[in-house]
Amino acid sequence: MRRIIRAVGGVAATVAVVLGVVPSAAAHQGPRLAWSPCVEDVTAECATLSLPVDWAKPRGARFDLAVARRTATDPRKRTGVLLINPGGPGGSGVDFALEANTFFSPRVLERFDVIGFDPRGVKRSAPVECSVDVLARQPSLYPANQTEFAALGAYNRELAADCRRQTGPIYDHVDSLSVVRDMDALRVALGERKINYYGLSYGTLIGAQYAEEFGGNIRAMVMDSVIDHSNGVRKFTEVSSATTEDSFAEFVEWCDRTTSCALHGRDVPKAWDDLLARADRGEVVDPADPTRAVDSTEIIYTAFDLFYLPAWDWLATSIRDWEAAAPTTRAAAPGVRTGTETAQAPFAAVFCQDWDFRVRDHREFAALVDRANRLAPHMRGSILAHIATTGCVGLPDKVNNPQHRLDVTDAPDLLMINAKHDPSTGHEWATNVHRQIRDTATLVTYEGWGHLAYNRTQCTRDVVDNYLITAKTPRAGTRCAAAEPTTAAARSAAPTVQLPSSVVRAGWGW
User: Fold this and answer.
1) Can you give 416-478 as a three-state secondary structure string?
2) Number of other residues whose CB lies within 10 A of the CB of residue 507
3) Which domains does the chain have, with CATH numbers?
4) Whole-model pTM?
5) Cα(315)–Cα(350) distance, rounded to whole angstroms?
6) Pick from 111, 177, 183, 337: most CB atoms within 10 A?
C-alpha cells in the first residue's frame, strides 16, 4: 500500500503520518462550523472552515474552505450528511448545494443534510486567480512545429508564474489529494463518524481517492460519470478521443432516424466535415454576428458541449445555421475592457497537479494528435483532453498527485454509475476503474447518452436513491434502459433538471 498521510484529530491541531485507518476517537474532535444564512440563498446555511494550505505543514499558512448546507427536510428520517461535488475541476460545491433541492429527489433530501464545499482553489475557497491579459495571450494549442511547441511551453510557465503570484501559496497545493484531506477535515468539523458522498465527473476522482485514503469513514459513496485516474497520456488521449467520436456517431444515427432533425435526410458526417473545412479556411461566421469568424475549434467545442445533455436538435440546427450564415463587410466593434484585472482559472492548476502529462517535444505531440484524429476523424480527437494535455506542456515534472491504480482496502460497498454513451467520461473509463475496485464497488450502466446518469430516468434515480438510503448496492450487472433525448419543444413543455448550472462545466472541464 502507498504511504498514506492522513489528517486526524482537530482540524487546527494535529496532522499524523500513519499507515492504516484513522483512529475512530478522532471523529468528534475539533472545531464545529458556525452556520449562518447564505448570502445567495437564505434558505440554505453557509460557513467556512480554516484549513492548512499544505497538509505537510499543518502549522503553516491557512485558507478558508467555503461550505454550504441544506438540512434534511424530515429530521425524523435523517440518516446523516451527504457531501457533494459537481466536478470540473473548478465546479462549485457550494453552488451545487444551493441547487440541491432542484437536483436530488425528495427521498434523498428528507434524509440527508446535503453539504457542498468549494474545493481549494475554486470560487469562494482561495480561488486560483490569473491576469486577464496573460490569459488572453494564449498561443495556439495546435503548434505546427518545435518552435511553436516551445513557445506554448514558455507561455504555460509564464501563466503559471502569474497565477501563482495572483493567487498565493495555495496555487501549488490545489491537487485532488489535498482536497480529499480537506474533505475528511470537514467530516470531523461536522461531527460525523461517517459520511455519504455523491461525486459527479471529476468529483469521482476525489471520491475514489477518499475511498482509498479514508475508506473506513464512508457509509455510502456514489461515483457518477467516472474519471479513470490510472491512464498515461497516450491511453488518456485514445480513450477520450474514441469516447467523443462515439457521441458524434450517436448524434448522426439520431438524425438519420428523426424527421425533426434539421439535417434529416442528408449525409450528416459529410455536412459536418465540409463545415469544418470551410471554418479552417475562414469561411464560416457567427449567424448572430456575421462580422465574427467562427473557427473549427469553436464548432467542435460547441458540439462537444451539446453532447452533454445531449441537445442533438440544437446541434443540428446550429450546423444548418453555420452553413447558411453569410459574412458581412461591416467592421466589428472594438472590444471593450471591463476593467477586470484577474479571472478565476483553476482548471490547469488542478489538472497539472493531478496528472503527470508532460509531452516533451513536438514529435511526441504530433503523434498524439495523429492518433486522436485516427480514432475520432470527425471530432478531431477530444477537445477537452487536448486542452487539458496541452495546458501542462512545459511545466515542471513534479506532480503532487500523480495518477495510479486504485488501492481501496477498507471502504464499504460503493456505487458507480455511467452512461454507455458519455461524451467525456466514457464507459471504458468506468469499467476500468471498476476492475480496480471490483471487490468493493458495483457498476450500473445507463444505456443512453449524455454526461451525468443520476437524473436520466426513473431507473437511474431509483438505483442511486435506494443505495444512498439503504447503503446496499444493486445486483451486479444492473443496467437502466435508455430514454430518447428530448427536443427543445419537449424540454420547454416539460422541463427536467439534468445539469444544474453548478454541474455544467465552468468554461471547460469534466
Assistant:
1) EEEEEECCCCCHHHHHHHHHHCHHHEEEEEEEEECCCCCCCCHHHHHHHHHHHHHCCCCCCCC
2) 12
3) 4-10+33-127+174-230+404-493 (3.40.50.1820), 129-168+232-403 (no CATH)
4) 0.91
5) 30
6) 183
